[in-house]
Amino acid sequence: MLESASKKPASTRERLLELAEQMVLRKGFASTSIEELIAGVGITKSGFFYHFKDKNDLARALMQRYLEDNKRQLDGIFARAAELHEDPLHSFLIGLKLFAELMNSVHDVHPGCIAAAVIYQDQAFDAEVRSLSAEGMLDWRKRFRTHLDRIVKRYPPKIDVDLDSLADMMSALADGGIILSKALKDRTTLPAQIMHYRNYIKLLFEPA
Amino acid sequence: MLESASKKPASTRERLLELAEQMVLRKGFASTSIEELIAGVGITKSGFFYHFKDKNDLARALMQRYLEDNKRQLDGIFARAAELHEDPLHSFLIGLKLFAELMNSVHDVHPGCIAAAVIYQDQAFDAEVRSLSAEGMLDWRKRFRTHLDRIVKRYPPKIDVDLDSLADMMSALADGGIILSKALKDRTTLPAQIMHYRNYIKLLFEPA
DNA sequence: GCTCGAACTGCACCTATGGTACAGTATACC
DNA sequence: GGTATACTGTACCATAGGTGCAGTTCGAGC
After folding, report:
1. Which residue of A199, B71, B124, B133 has the smallest Cβ count within 10 Å?
2. What angle do CA A131, A134, A137 make, to 5 degrees?
3. If we measure between CA atoms, which residue out of B190, B159, B116 comes closest to residue A197?
4. Distance, angstroms, CA A113 to C1' D17?
């Protein structure tokens, strides 16, 4: 299900998106100049506008690509976790551990979340890009909420909590953890936050 | 200790900073044009450059102002919490509740954190601004770590946790909660995340 | 071997914006 | 009356996003 790195040479469009993603996460969208992009990829300005109608069209493609990659990764992790344990709570805890491990291994320091990056440059994007970003957040909510629903059926929580906001907590910790990681240039910060979420879930639902 | 809104008319410099903060949080730094700023405040471009050497100088002033306001707010909250209870754990829990309430009351939806906004527009700022942002995060770590140190002396945690990352968790949830609030246009998201942090602290340290 | 569409190049041109430089001015305080 | 503060006005430059359009290269299908 997970294709890691296909060998066929990336298309110009794909290379533009890849470079744009790196630049947007480091400099912000407005500071990411088309001129730098085409210089990096080795095409002309006309070539760029052949692939993308304008800069916002690039942003839209960037968001879509990011959200799809994201979903694929999470699907992979929690499918594996479901294989390893049938119980909803323990399977979820395993999934969170796998998630933390993945965030610890892949990058030097996490390059960032496109959906979060958009939020602080809101008005620089059109409505479609903004709504894609919000959809991404709601997908995470739905995804984690599904796990939590299965857990509460079997394990009563020690404190009464709102399950939507408990699901959102994972997004908040991921986005916040990424910001801290980037600010402090410490790649351990993000996985540590995921493990705190895991602790909280354990303390909330695991019987004594 | 807390001066809410002084009545004397704000100086031009102050009005520039106030407007710039709003614009940076909504559109990003690069998209915040000096032209719009001076139009909003009613001065000329020369007037702007009288107050700020260049755009990065504005960014530096913005960060400093934001961090100072931030510290003042947190000082106020936890000083009040210390007044209300002597015990380190309960005083901290009270402080977190006050913090959540403040985040619920003040704004329609939280306008954003300048320090976090900088992180996703990293290379658009000079080294000084970036380092101010990181200092802000470390100040939060130190601040919350102090509370946690006092708590662990009296209450052994149920799970062995790293106290620095537990202190960082508050920053992560605040920054992540703000992003979610802004993305979903829901002002309840941020206070809900603070209350989850409070729950986690309770479950970790409060004796059964 | 020809046609056609995809994936570009090249050039011309317009506008907005950040930024520099510098001379001049209104007002308040000393 | 002098000086500092807080500006205005004018002129000018480089870079960037963006538009428009004509021309080119190249591989696949007929």
Report:
1. B71
2. 155
3. B159
4. 25
- Both tokens of A53, joined, read 């109608």
Give all domains of chain B, ordered by start, each with its CATH number.
11-52 (1.10.10.60), 63-205 (1.10.357.10)
State whether A169 and B204 contact (CB < 8 Å). Answer: no
Torsion of CA A170, A171, A175, A180, to 10 degrees: -20
Measure B190 CA to D10 C1' (Å): 49
Containing B90, the helix (H) or strand (E) segment is: helix B88-105
Mutation target to probe the B interface, by most B beta carbons within 10 A, among A118, A129, A163, A180 is A180
Instruction: Read off the tokens for B46.
Output: 């020369």
- Chain A residue with CA closest to B167: the answer is A193
| CA atoms of B29 and B116, how far apart (whole Å) | 12
Protein-covered nucleotides of chain D (CB closer than 7 Å) are 6-11, 15-22
Distance CA A134, CA A114 (A): 11
Separation in Å, CA of A144 to nearest CA in chain B? 15
Distance of CA B72 to the CA centre of its chain: 10
Write the residue in B121, B172, B182 that is nearest to A177 by C-beta. B172
Residues of A in contact with B133 (CB under 8 A): 183
Q: What is the pLDDT of residues A115-141, one digit of tens each?
A: 999 898 867 787 888 899 999 999 999
B197 burial class (0-12, 13-18, 19+ CB within 10 angstroms)?
A: buried
Helix (H) or strand (E) run with residue B87 in it: none
> DSSP assignment of B127-184, as one string?
HHHHHHHHHHHHHHHHHHHHHHHHHHHHS--SS---HHHHHHHHHHHHHHHHHHHHHH
Tell me, what's the pLDDT at A123?
73
Length of chain B: 208
Q: Select, from the ranges A51-55, A80-84, B108-112, the one with the highest average predicted confidence (pLDDT).
A: A80-84
Is residue B96 within 8 Å of residue B192, measured between CB atoms?
no
The answer, yes or no, to whether residue A37 has pLDDT greater than 90, is: no
Please name the amino acid found at residue A173: L
